[in-house]
Amino acid sequence: MRIEEHPILGPLKGKATIQIEVDGKRIQAIPGEMISSALVAAGIKVFQRTHKKNETRWYFCGIGLCTDCMMTVDNVPGVRTCITPVREGMRIKTQTGHGKWEV
């Protein structure tokens, strides 16, 4: 399953693939697609965990309004993956709570 028509950013263009890294695992993505779309297509179903109860969160609204899809991207916590396009070599990590800055 791949999101090919984003409600805000429009249709996905092209079918070439790039590599991104998610929790140390390399997956395929299509340039211009949102990070969350690439993760869903790869079968990844946990984007973050809550701080207090360690409950899992996943793709929910798809338009950047909620915070369920936030992950740490290239050492920056709190990135909304539903509105952030992939780029070659991106490093993405499952986040707990608000995440933490890494140096």
How do the helices and strands line up, and which of them pair or pack?
Blueprint: E1 5-6, E2 10-11, E3 18-22, E4 25-29, H1 35-41, E5 48-49, E6 56-57, E7 70-73, E8 76-80, E9 91-93, E10 95-96
Parallel strand pairs: 3-9, 5-10
Antiparallel strand pairs: 1-2, 3-4, 5-6, 7-8, 7-9
Question: What features would you describe in this structure?
Answer:
This protein has one domain: Roll (Ubiquitin-like (UB roll)), CATH 3.10.20.440. The mean pLDDT is 87. With 103 residues, it is mainly β. It is built from one helix and ten strands. A hairpin with a 3-residue loop joins strand 1 (5-6) and strand 2. The protein has one helix spanning 35-41; strands spanning 5-6, 10-11, 18-22, 25-29, 48-49, 56-57, 70-73, 76-80, 91-93, 95-96. It has a five-stranded mixed sheet, with helices on one face. Strands 6-5-10 form a three-stranded mixed sheet, with no helix packed on it.
Using the coordinates above, name the CATH class. Answer: Alpha Beta
Rough outline: globular
What integer value in Å does the Rg equal?
13 Å
Question: What structural class do you assign from the helix and strand content?
Answer: mainly beta
Topology, number of strands: 10
What would you give as the CATH superfamily?
Answer: 2Fe-2S iron-sulphur cluster binding domain, sarcosine oxidase, alpha subunit, N-terminal domain
Strand order of the largest sheet: 4-3-9-7-8
| Main sheet makeup | 5 strands, mixed
Instruction: Tell me the number of helical segments per DSSP (H or I, 4 or more residues long).
Output: 1
Average pLDDT confidence is 87
CATH architecture: Roll
CATH topology: Ubiquitin-like (UB roll)
| Number of domains as seen in the coordinates | 1
Q: Which spans of ≥5 residues are poorly predicted at pLDDT below 50?
A: none
**N- and C-termini, Cα separation:** 34 Å
- Percent of residues in helices comes to under 10%
Q: What oligomeric assembly is this protein in? A: single chain
Tell me the β content: 25-35%
Helix-strand pattern, N to C?
EEEEHEEEEEE
